[in-house]
Amino acid sequence: MSAVEMIQLKPGDYKTDLKPVWCPGCGDYGVLNALYRSLAKLQIEPWNTVVMSGIGCSSRLPGYVDTYGFNSVHGRALTLATGVKSARPELTVITVGGDGDGMAIGGNHFIHSCRRNMDITYILMHNEIYGLTKGQVAPTTPTGDKTKSTFYGNPEAALDPCELAISTGATWVGRGFAGDMKFLVPLMTEAIAHHGFSFLNVMSPCVTFRGDDQFKVMKEKLQNLPEDHDVTSRRAAIYYTREEGVITQGVLYNTQQPSLTDRILELRELTLGDNTPPTTEEIFETFYPPF
Ligand SMILES: Cc1ncc(C[n+]2csc(CCOP(=O)(O)OP(=O)(O)O)c2C)c(N)n1
Ligand code: SF4
Ligand SMILES: [Mg+2]
Asked: Domains in the chain, ordered, with CATH?
């Protein structure tokens, strides 16, 4: 056994020296703590891991995790994560960020990440608001709610990130709450261990711009999935999205399919193997009308 194999990593080993600058009581502290514990449970090697984000309060998280990391551009975390995973499939790639980052400006990238089933874990910190820019409406803000940019109440319908993930091809989809660590840690651990695109929506209260009662409000809505829920059924999973007055937590959907990473590796084998690639003339001959 090598020295590296003998190290038992503890949650605290994943902490950096940076002190989080989130508001006291922000839900993102819970998400960060759950991540430390999940990484330790899986004994994830920090030197083989990248945590990536876009821009937002929640997107500060990579700075607090002692792995490789990148606090990138608003809405583009998944594009960069896709690039890293394509170039270095052996790395564990975890993407984190806010609901504005992931569902508004980054919504297009989210859909295609789900569709591609890249072997990445995406943890969304869902606070129903743009926190960093001081409380504007997000695509996840409930209809009718007042925000800094919807003074008379939000006139738009909210989207449900889990519904979007399930319907566009993510192979693992779950929902948890930053105020229920006992439930969140095993959920996050399962998401990270999943092979393929796993999407974990964590309800993570913004106590500054959604109200300091948000932990209580969300907790009262919390409900566990029934024990007989069929996680392999897309239809059954969708049933637990877009709920009103309820937040159902648990694994909504879980299926095994080859990831894009597997397919890329297969293609690499083909190009590096004995297969002679077609000549330019042979490719041109397949065009119509012929040159
Ligand atoms: C291209 C671009 N557009 C807009 C912004 C401004 N901006 C920064 S963070 C943010 C939204 C943050 O909300 P969210 O992603 O939900 O994260 P939270 O702060 O709530 O955790 C916006 C609009 C930006 N930085 N870059
Ligand atoms: S503004 Fe909201 S989301 Fe941002 S750190 Fe404060 S409580 Fe958290
Ligand atoms: Mg937000």
From this structure: 3-257 (3.40.50.970)
- Whose structure tokens read 């994830």? 44
Of the listed ranges 155-159, 230-234, 286-290, the least confidently predicted one is 286-290
| Residue 99 and residue 128 in contact, taking contact as beta carbons nearer than 8 Å | yes
Query: Which residue is it, tokens 């989809």?
Result: 173
Hey, whose CA ends up nearest to atom 26 of ligand 1? Answer: 74
pLDDT, averaged across the chain = 94
**With 80 as the cut, is the pLDDT of residue 215 above it?**
yes
Structure tokens at 255: 């299926």
7-27 pLDDT, tens digit per residue, is 899 999 999 999 999 999 999
Regarding the beta carbon of 123 and ligand 1, being less than 6 Å apart is answered no
Any atom of ligand 1 within 6 Å of the Cβ of 27: no
Flag whether pLDDT at 2 surpasses 70.
no
Q: Which of 1-10, 13-22, 222-231, 274-283 is least confident? A: 1-10
Q: What percent of the chain has pLDDT over 90?
A: 87
Give the neighbor-by-neighbor strand order of the sheet with 172-177.
Answer: 68-71, 49-53, 92-98, 121-126, 198-203, 172-177, 247-254, 222-224
Cα 55 to middle of ligand 3, angstroms: 10
Burial class (CB in 10 A: 0-12, 13-18, 19+), 4: exposed
The whole model's pTM is what?
0.94
Q: Which ligand 2 atom is the nearest neighbour of the CA of 127? A: 3
Token pair 């500054």: residue? 208
For residue 98, the ligand 2 atom closest to its alpha carbon is 3
